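**Backbone shape codes:**
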Amino acid sequence: MTTFTNTELEAIRLLVVKTRNSVVLQKKTALGLVEIEQIVEKIDSLLKETTSLPFGESKKDLFDISTDYNVMKITDIQNEIDYEIDMDLVYNGKIVGYLIEDRDEAISNIESWIGESNSESDKYLMREDLEYLRESSEDYVLNCCGTNGFISKDVDMKEFNKVCQELIESFTAYQNGEAK
């Protein structure tokens, strides 16, 4: 059985929608506009199903993270590879700008910063971060150095996996002497 990723399904849907009035499509497939519309509806239904599945492709548990002093640890679960990344590489701009942080410590820091801040807009952003962090039950979260936004595995696994992959690729490129 052939399977498609969400991106592939979206591309197929776009192709079908853009060419549904095409005489060539109708002649080659012997489908009329009504049947083509039904195909689009089926693709839409598949897209809804795949995004709502608890363990769809984008929601696979691919990585684990932790920290040990100044070292970020990313475990590639599928390939059973551990990456130990010195945080100074992030601080010095050598690899992409994400750090692994203890979630409880991040919550505690933000709570104290809210009390110290005089800026209502900063307080608002910090409260949003607090809400996001409290939604998570993970021990560790990813912190984007550029925006101070957080990414947690149990809140947004797709983005979490993407960022872990970016960190690994950036670290590997750095080790191989390639630019970030």
In short: Confidence is low (pLDDT under 50) at residues 52-57. The first strand starts at residue 63 and ends at 68. The helical segments are 6-19, 23-29, 33-52, 88-91, 103-116, 120-135, 157-175.
